[in-house]
Design brief:
The complex is a heterodimer of chains A (about 550) and B (about 400). Chain A is mostly helical and about 550 residues long. Chain A has helices at about 20, 25-30, 35-65, 75-110, 120-125, 130-145, 160-165, 165-195, 210-240, 255-290, 295-310, 325-335, 340-350, 360-385, 385-390, 395-425, 430-460, 475-505. The two termini of chain B are about 40 Å apart. Classes of the chains: A mainly alpha (about 550), B alpha+beta (about 400). Bound molecules: copper (II) ion (2 copies).
Chain lengths: ~550, ~400
């Protein structure tokens, strides 16, 4: 990569512009494609579909919780919905969306012709649909009287409840395995691409922050997914092969499962968020018409968060009973994450400072993200406190907190990226009017849904219950109304994206006045093979 | 879940719930902070919580005031060209950049850290000067309370009637937070609470006590409380523990010590009466009557009214091979995998737990007799509490 020649052959394609002639068409094109943009599009489409699937599940839950009493469903079914909702949203919506971004953007942003391992890339995607099928099939089977439905343990699958469960648990275990393999393949591909395919002159310290965020995510995935895979395999063995990893009667320990699960589960939060933190500075800088503030500080903050994320897992189960020194260690380790996180907030706001800010939809989402994710971060800080956590834990306070982190932080972050890059991907502009409407409806109804859940938790409502005492009725009703507005507002998003792709106004190569970065030097949409001639980075 | 049946019935129920459901009872609507604390731990926690909330609200306001100022002041068209800086330059700027981090460090590790550590140490101090021990055992989906010093133990289950849950009747004030047998504790005494479970993980939680501790099968965890004020305190299981996780409340009645001691004596007398009940011979009708009550309290959550079960997870008892199988062997011993075996010893790896240690001789004998003569099962036979007492010694 350090030679003077900057033209390198495109992986597996010696036919230059005439790619079209050798490609299968129709469905086969999508099944066999190794093109990073095709695969990126598939990831994003899949994520959007699963976002609505997971959303429908939780709307059913919110209907049940609208009023005290059991109205719509039996508790068994309620328990299935909440757990599968979480797995779908995390593994089948948020993670694929982030991988879709990586596929589309990393080659464009680092000046590479494609991802380094195109076939691996294809596999990474095509493992997802079967996994989603495995997760949801038990629902369908139970309609025909086969089995007792999907996983009913919550997404955390804690033993021994999951040892007791029906075959929905086995389906979920295999789904997790497939999703895990897919993530690891994707991660290897991203790491190899970033390390080997950067344009000449692009040193690591010139790498776009989005690529940096994904790089750390990829390492975290490779470090933690195997632990999750191990944990669920042990669970499978306990269920069917007579082992006792998680059963005290046989010398095992149920809490071992929680340690293994959260050794994966805590970094998973950052796995979901680092790609978003990576894309934020690009968006803020574009619409502030000012260069990114504190590039290096942000890179080091990413690294610090990556490292800290694997040493704080036990704050997810302070109530199991731990030695006091362990409690205190995990409390302070968790609190210390607030420092690198504060660096990021500082840099985001400093990037805006004395800029010339305009408020197009991506910027609105970015600003909404900063404020609402701020609430997630601050409530996370108090959750780390063991004594107060005794009240917060297992309550709706936690539910509210992680939806501020994963909906406002994750999903709204993804939407920031979609609106920002959509003109690049489609070569067309989306409707600003609908985009702004979508933003305001989302931001308002999101708070209407989840702010009351903080209060419910403080007042003592446990999470994961299908029915509740009367003092929780009012806030639950409000939350349900909010959830419906929130859910239906997302249809505007889908419609806007569809309309844009179908026939929005033509977008120029550099779709945003203040944008900078290699991706804006390619046409919109970019050519089928991105950088056939690698650019020289100064 | 039979989906096809859902929509109409659901709509109907929703309408009913809206009509006669929530708001009629006297309850604290829109309660948005911790309920009134009644133990030292809960007071600590509330104080810390209020302090921390103030701190983070202040942080939130300051940071976003700066951001909003920038959004207004530095918007495009507010005629100045965008600046170009990408980091602090010069000593003074570095200083001002580092100040917020110094403040945050102070907040994390001193302002919040120090009181938090004190509270944790206090919370974990379970053994010093404990006046008594309460043992709590979680099981699907009820709590067993044991006073080891007095030899008293009993099971506590949800008292809310089914028809309130199904929206067939108006909900009363303590809907879902009421039990048949509450825990009774003396005020002003330090109670060391030992917690465990027989099946899956549950969590014992009473918000007004500020304690929440997981009940883990095969392990003993502990916490403590000292209730300052007589009263009735309500909480719930807080860890997803299966189907009826939302229906296993905790109710604690805190009373002055003399009242507590009187209650304990009464419980002891009841236990003695239960033990002696094994000495007499019971008629089949008496057993069936008693068994019906036990079934409704203990078994119905899983095996359902009329013994229908919820297949495939919870087998029906109506027409069950096991229930309709032989009672005991010719020598009067337990047959493996028979009705008596299943009820007394449970089945490992399933939700069917050994009831041998949870129920009295009379309760076991009566529920077995009841099941064999109900739900269309017509074995016609019965088993006496005295027989159960001797079978307890038996090893399979
Ligand atoms: Cu429970
Ligand atoms: Cu529970």
């Amino acid at each position: 990569m350090n030679t003077a020649t900057t033209t390198i052959p495109v992986a597996g394609a010696h036919h230059g512009d005439h790619h079209g002639h050798h490609q299968p068409s129709g469905v086969l094109r999508w099944i066999t494609t190794t093109n990073h943009k095709d695969i990126g599009t598939m990831y994003l489409t899949f994520a959007l579909i699963m976002f609505f699937v997971g959303g429908l599940m939780i709307l059913a839950v919110r209907v049940e919780l609208f009023q005290p009493g059991l109205q719509l469903m039996r508790p068994e079914f309620f328990n299935q919905l909440i757990g599968v909702h979480a797995l779908v949203m995390i593994f089948a919506a948020l993670m694929p969306a982030a991988t879709g971004f990586a596929n589309w953007q990393i080659p464009l942003m680092i000046g590479a012709p494609d991802m380094a391992l195109p076939r691996v890339n294809n596999w990474g995607f095509w493992l997802l649909p079967p996994a989603a099928l495995l997760l949801t099939l038990p629902f369908v089977l139970s309609l025909f009287g086969i089995g007792d439905g999907a996983l009913a343990t919550g997404w955390t699958m804690y033993a021994p409840l999951s040892v007791q469960g029906g075959f929905g648990v086995d389906f979920a275990i295999f789904a997790v395995h497939l999703l895990g393999v897919s993530s690891i393949l994707g991660s290897i591909n991203i790491i190899v691409t970033i390390f080997n395919m950067r344009a000449p002159g692009m040193t690591m310290m010139k790498l776009p922050l989005f690529a940096w965020g994904w790089l750390i995510t990829a390492f975290l995935l490779i470090a933690t997914i195997p632990v999750l895979a191990g944990a669920v395999t042990m669970l499978l063995a306990d269920r069917h092969f007579g082992t006792h990893f998680f059963s005290a009667a046989g010398g095992g320990d149920p809490i071992l499962f929680q340690h293994l699960f959260w050794f994966f589960g805590h970094p998973e939060v950052y796995i979901l968020l680092l790609p978003v933190w990576g894309l934020m500075p690009h968006v803020i800088s574009t619409f502030s018409r000012k260069p990114i503030y504190g590039y290096k500080a942000q890179v080091y903050a990413f690294m610090a968060i990556g490292v800290l994320s694997v040493v704080v897992w036990a704050h997810h189960f302070f109530t199991v009973g731990m030695p006091t020194p362990a409690l205190i260690y995990f409390m302070f380790a968790t609190m210390s994450i607030s420092l690198p996180l504060a660096v990021l907030f500082f840099c985001w706001i400093a990037t805006m400072w004395r800029g010339a800010i305009s408020f197009e939809t991506p910027m609105l989402f970015a600003l909404g993200f900063i404020v609402l994710f701020g609430i997630a971060g601050l409530t996370g800080l108090v959750l780390a406190d063991v004594a107060a956590d005794a009240q917060y834990h297992h309550s709706y306070f936690v539910v509210a907190h992680f939806h501020y982190a994963l909906f406002a932080g994750g999903i709204m972050g993804v939407m920031t990226g979609v609106y920002y890059w959509l003109p690049k991907w489609t070569g067309r502009m989306y409707s600003e009017r609908l985009g702004k409407l979508h933003f305001w409806l989302t931001a308002i109804s999101f708070n209407l849904t989840f702010m009351p859940q903080f209060f419910l938790g403080l007042a003592g409502m446990p999470r994961r219950i299908p029915d509740y005492a009367l003092q929780f009725a009012e806030f639950n009703a409000i939350s349900t109304v909010g959830a419906f507005v929130l859910g239906f507002s997302q249809l505007i998003f889908a419609w806007n994206v569809w309309q844009c792709a179908k026939g929005g106004a033509k977008a120029p190569a550099k779709a945003w006045e203040g944008a900078s970065g290699l991706e804006w030097e390619l046409s919109s949409p970019p050519p089928y093979h991105s950088w056939e001639t690698q650019p020289q980075v100064a | 879940m039979k989906m096809s049946r859902v929509p109409r019935r659901a709509l109907h129920r929703l309408a009913f719930a809206a009509a006669c459901g929530a708001p009629h009872a006297a309850h604290a609507a829109f309660q948005w902070n911790f309920p009134e604390p009644v133990t030292p731990i809960a007071r600590d926690t509330l104080k810390i919580h209020n302090e921390f909330m103030t701190v983070i609200t202040a942080l939130f306001v300051v940071v976003f005031a700066i951001m909003i100022y920038s959004m207004i002041k530095h918007r495009k068209g507010a005629d100045h060209p965008p600046a170009k800086f990408t980091g602090p330059s010069g000593k003074l700027q570095w200083f001002w950049t580092l100040v917020p981090f110094a403040i945050l460090l102070f907040i994390d590790f001193v302002l919040m850290g120090v009181p938090a550590v004190e509270a944790v140490v206090n919370m974990e101090d379970t053994q010093n000067k404990a006046d008594m021990v309460l043992k709590v055992t979680g099981m699907q989906w009820k709590w067993q309370y044991e006073y080891p010093d007095a030899g008293v133990k009993y099971i506590s289950t949800l008292a809310t009637p089914r028809d309130q849950i199904e929206n067939q009747a108006p909900k009363d004030e303590h809907y879902l937070l009421e039990v048949d047998n509450p825990v009774v504790l003396p005020v002003g005494k330090k109670v060391r609470v030992l917690i465990t479970s027989t099946d899956v993980i549950h969590t014992w939680w009473v918000p007004q006590f500020g304690v929440k501790r997981d009940a883990i099968p095969g392990f003993l965890r502990e916490t403590w409380l000292r209730i300052d004020k007589p009263g009735i305190y309500r909480g719930q299981c807080a860890e997803l523990c299966g189907k009826d996780h939302g229906f296993m409340p905790v109710v604690v009645k805190a009373v002055p010590e003399p009242e507590y001691l009187a209650w304990l004596d009464q419980k002891k007398a009841e236990a003695a009466a239960a033990a002696s009940s094994s000495d007499r011979v019971w008629t089949k009708e008496e057993l069936i009557d008693k068994g019906k009550e036990v079934y409704g309290r203990i078994c119905m959550a899983c095996h359902q009214p009329e013994g229908r079960g919820l297949p495939p997870t919870f087998p029906p008892l109506a027409g069950s091979k096991i229930v309709n199988g032989p009672l005991l062997s010719a020598e009067g011993r337990i047959i493996r995998d028979s009705h008596v075996d299943r009820v007394m010893n449970g089945k490992a790896g399933t939700a069917m737990q050994p009831f041998k240690n949870l129920l009295t001789d009379l309760e076991i004998a009566s529920v077995i007799t009841y099941e064999r003569n109900s739900f269309g099962n017509a074995r016609g036979d019965m088993i006496q509490p005295a027989q159960i007492r001797s079978l307890r010694q038996e090893k399979l």
